[in-house]
Amino acid sequence: MPYIAGMNTLNFDLNLLRVFDMLLREQNVSRAAERLALTQPTVSNALARLRDQLGDPLLVRVGRRMRPTPRALALEGPIRAALQQIEQTLVIGDAFEPQHSQRQLRIAVTDFVEQMCMSPLLALVQVQAPLLRIDVAHLTPDLPAEALDRGELDLVLGRFDEVPARFSRHLWRRETLRVALRRGHPETGNGLPLDTFLRMRHLWVHGGQTRGMVDQWLAEQNLARQIVYTTPNYLQAAHLVAATDLCAVLPTTLAQHFATLLPLELYELPFALEPFELELVHLTHRQHDPALAWLVDRIMTMNSENRVLDELDPP
User: Fold this and answer.
1) CA-to-CA distance for 60 and 68, rounded, in angstroms?
2) pLDDT tens for residues 90-125?
3) Which of 102, 116, 202, 223 is within CB 3.0–4.6 Å of 218 for a Cys-Cys bond?
4) What is the C-alpha to C-alpha distance for residues 92 and 81, in angstroms, rounded to an integer?
5) Cα diameter, the chain
6) Which CATH number applies to 104-171+284-301?
7) In Å, what is the CA distance from 33 to each residue of 23, 39, 42, 100, 235?
8) Which helix (H) or strand (E) covers residue 22, if one does?
9) How many other CB atoms are there within 10 angstroms of residue 299's CB atom?
10) What is the pTM of this model?
């Protein structure tokens, strides 16, 4: 349990921590009471006791909503982590029976990774854990550390530059890039040299980034391409390229998949780029959750190139 300055934690009612956590999640007494299966007066009384024992209003009304105070926000992460640790400690050693489990596991991925990963994963889950529920959320370019800390996500699968030391990271696969053009594109008679690549009209799948691998390399050579359309969606990008004279750089696996469905031709980049890595990331202390461990193992073994990465941050 986190240290709470200025009070004797031996006399603190630990049941109040569950109420605190739910109030911070919902920022509404009625909704918190409903989720806790308690009456509204009971939760209101618990909030009053929390305010008294912590010496802070914790939640203050702003207009029609309640907002957490700085003190409440400072306590939110440590208290939630402590509650999760207690919950996971209690389930250690419990048998996880995939065939009968009705657990809900939440994963954040990009549409590209969802296309690659989820079809084979769902086929496997349908056989081995038919009652398991998987909820997928959209993954932004930055690691959603706070959502993982709060338990809103169980794991994420994507490309990350920085991962804090409290997380475990596993290399899922390495991916390269290909240039996708519509079949019969007028610029492809003599392959795809760099000068041709640069004068083409490009579609860029930005994924929330300000600059991707291709444009970073070009900038280092004092070069630039002509980007005339941007989208956050890989799946839409392939259809747009197939129907126009636009050019797009796509992950090889996705490009090959769409080349079997759409009139697309694929080309090597006219310059060398290192492969990028897709990683599976979760809180290290969650590794003892048997359901999460089962899911991580299934995702990792779906790709023969997988290997577990050592922690990249020094101890």
Assistant:
1) 6
2) 655 556 789 988 888 999 998 888 988 898 999 999
3) 223
4) 16
5) 79
6) 3.40.190.10
7) 9, 6, 8, 29, 41
8) helix 15-26
9) 21
10) 0.68
